[in-house]
Amino acid sequence: MGRVWSGALERRREAVAVKWTGIFLVIFSAGGFGVWSAMEWKGRLRLLELLRQMIYFLKGEITYSHAPIAEALERVGKRTHGPLGELFTGVAQNICNQEGESLQEIWRRAIKGLATGTHLPLTKEDLEQLSCLGEYLGYLDVDMQERTLKLYLEQLDVSIHYLRSNQRERCRLYTSLGFMGGMLLVIVMY
């Protein structure tokens, strides 16, 4: 009889250990998702700030250096590492290859490649605005290109201001909701 009780007691201990492990994993994974969402918010802000800096450099190259668009894009792209730098240098190389495509088509294709090729914390709206920028570059005079870049910079500034002003609250909210959602799920499951 003692063996039966010790076997049942051992199975009960294992069941409790598995239950607590499951509770820990659910809370940890839900909290991790909340932390990941907060990091995405911060990453989007950093990426848009970097893009704004690159557009300022591009505006300077076009306005003051009077560099052709391919040369300006290449210079700006070489200054910046990462996917955005590769975007600019890739577009510059495609322009130089002259495969019969317009700058607008090259730019749009590069943005689609950027959206599908790498994981960037940019929203669909961010990518659409960036894609629209390419429609007005290259074939207009310097003044119109400068105005186009200024308009895009204003759009970026609005997005950056929104992200900065809501960063603290959103990051806390995402993190808290992740952990609290995990706890709620544990309560509902058990």
From TrEMBL:
Sorted keywords for this record are: Membrane, Transmembrane, Transmembrane helix
- Matching InterPro entries, A to Z? Spore_III_AB
Q: Where are the transmembrane segments?
A: 20-39, 171-189
Any one Pfam family match given in the protein's UniProt record, by short name: Spore_III_AB
Query: In its UniProt entry, what is this protein called?
Result: Sporulation protein
